[in-house]
Automatic annotation (TrEMBL):
Top-level taxonomy: Bacteria, Bacillati, Bacillota, Clostridia, Lachnospirales
Cross-referenced PROSITE patterns: HTH_GNTR (PS50949)
NCBIfam families: trehalos_R_Bsub (TIGR02404)
HTH gntR-type domain location: 2-70
SUPFAM superfamilies: Chorismate lyase-like, Winged helix' DNA-binding domain
Organism: Lacrimispora defluvii
Protein name: Trehalose operon repressor
């Protein structure tokens, strides 16, 4: 049975999709939503938080939630989430195109990134992500074969994390990420629909198992106009 807060989330999302609430509009206050939908305060707050997480609204303490521009896609900096998980509630029908899947070894930069030796092997997986008919992300993933001995094409086309966790039984723990902006390369222009953009946002991730084993290095290259990077920060006193 669907939870009450997820049901309310879908009702509010439907109003946003149908442009009853335009970008920049304020949603009704929590009390108004409680009365309108016969929901508890906890249900309303959970539904609004899910809309925040999925990039549809922004919310500040003491202020009404504001609808965001849907033309920008939400990229969770402080979460470890697959592309499939990020867009699980999206109606934009994202598409994954596998450009390359091969075994590599001996690359000094890769050895340093994955902390492996010259004779150790890694899978290189290159994928292009297409959203609403535009190719806007290149994902380059390197997986240490010390941990991931096999990586089937079907997993690369669907969800690698789902394969690692459900089929290999791996426990993914945490990641370190860095975000920088660079001039676009020839490869970016070749694989992405860059239009007039000449810059690219690069997210590098080092992902570890729960036992602190580094098993993945990722370089994710994003066309800058379609993405906002979000995090939750709390002031330390």
């Amino acid at each position: 049975m669907e939870s009450k807060y997820r049901h309310l989330y879908k009702l509010l999302l439907d109003k946003i999709d149908r442009r009853e609430y335009e970008p920049g509009d304020k949603l009704p206050a929590e009390g108004e939503l409680m009365e309108a939908y016969g929901a508890s305060r906890d249900t309303v707050r959970k539904a609004l938080e899910l809309l925040v997480q999925d990039g549809y609204i922004q919310k500040a303490r003491g202020k009404a939630a504001e609808v965001l521009d849907k033309n920008k896609f939400n990229f969770p900096v402080s979460e470890i989430a697959s592309f499939k998980e990020i867009y699980r509630f999206s109606d934009s029908k994202p598409k994954t195109i596998v450009e390359n899947l091969e075994i590599v070894k001996g690359d000094k930069n890769l050895m340093a990134a994955l902390q492996i030796g010259p004779e150790d092997e890694a899978f290189l997986l290159e994928r292009v992500r297409e959203i609403e008919g535009e190719k806007i992300i290149i994902d380059k993933d390197y997986f240490s074969r010390k941990v991931v001995e096999n990586l089937p094409l079907r997993a690369a086309q669907d969800s690698v994390y789902e394969y690692l966790e459900k089929e290999l039984g791996l426990k993914i723990g945490f990641a370190m990420k860095e975000i920088t902006v660079h001039m676009a390369t020839d490869e970016d222009y070749r694989l992405l629909d860059m239009g007039s953009y000449d810059m690219i946002v690069v997210v590098k991730s080092y992902t570890y198992l729960e036992d602190s084993t580094l098993f993945q290095f990722t370089e994710s290259r994003h066309r800058p106009d379609k993405f906002k990077f979000v995090d939750f920060a709390r002031r330390k006193l």
